[in-house]
Amino acid sequence: MDKKNYAKIHSIETFGTVDGPGVRFVAFFQGCHLECKYCHNRDTWDINKGNYTSVDELFSNILKYKPYITPNGGFTASGGEPLLQSYFLISLFKKLKREDIHTAIDTSGMLEITDTIKELLALTDLVLLDIKHINPDKCKDLVGFSNEKELAFAKYLSDNNIPIWIRQVIIPGITDNKEDLIELKKFINSLKTVQKVELLPYHNLGEYKWKELGFEYKLKDIRTANDYDIKRAKEILNI
């Protein structure tokens, strides 16, 4: 299958309001190389599942909603990890740019910054960057990988004037340590193109998907984050 013209898509959302500015057409790409213990889209991990969709098919579908998603919204590639199918996104984003449709990618940034990735990012108007954990050891325990690549990815975005929305899931007892949040604040302040910091409260709404797939949900004993958890983290981060 030609990876420039076909990709595995898990699902789409035609009127998304939480994955970038304005109303957005959101495509959730199949496949992820991370193993986030809190993942609420566990069914997106296996790239061999999902349906093949062509660039032309997805582009035509997006165009149907252009009156609703422009000029203030646009298209967001989410997942899974959309950067695993970068060739496809390059082809798609070139078409979207010709239609003046805003392009965004929701990613962990935990990949090598290849020439292909660089080409794609040059066509990207906004990156929603999910910082998994600012502490490298805690990050590896939480998602299976240390954070060096995603922090380098963030620096690349900043150095190349690509707008960033930083996202951090607040998991009580795991990502809300004061010292870690202070380090996160320092890192965010070192970046030049951060437009927004979003704190996402941890929830266990995706636990049933783990069970349906026959996997143990690792955070079943962790409580969901509440308003106080978010307020406290915002105060530490000064946002």
The main sheet comes to:
8 strands, mixed
Strand order of the largest sheet: 3-1-2-4-5-6-7-8
Radius of gyration of CA atoms, rounded to a whole number: 17 Å
What is the CATH T-level topology?
TIM Barrel
Number of domains: 1
* C-alpha end-to-end distance: 45 Å
Can you tell me the CATH class?
Alpha Beta
Could you name the ranges where pLDDT drops below 50 across 5 or more consecutive residues? none
Strand percent estimate: 15-25%
Number of discrete helical segments: 9
Number of strands: 8
The percent range for helix content is 25-40%
Structural class estimated from helices and strands: alpha/beta
Helix/strand order, N-terminal first: EEEHHEHEHEHHEHEHH
**Which architecture would the CATH scheme give at its second level?**
Alpha-Beta Barrel
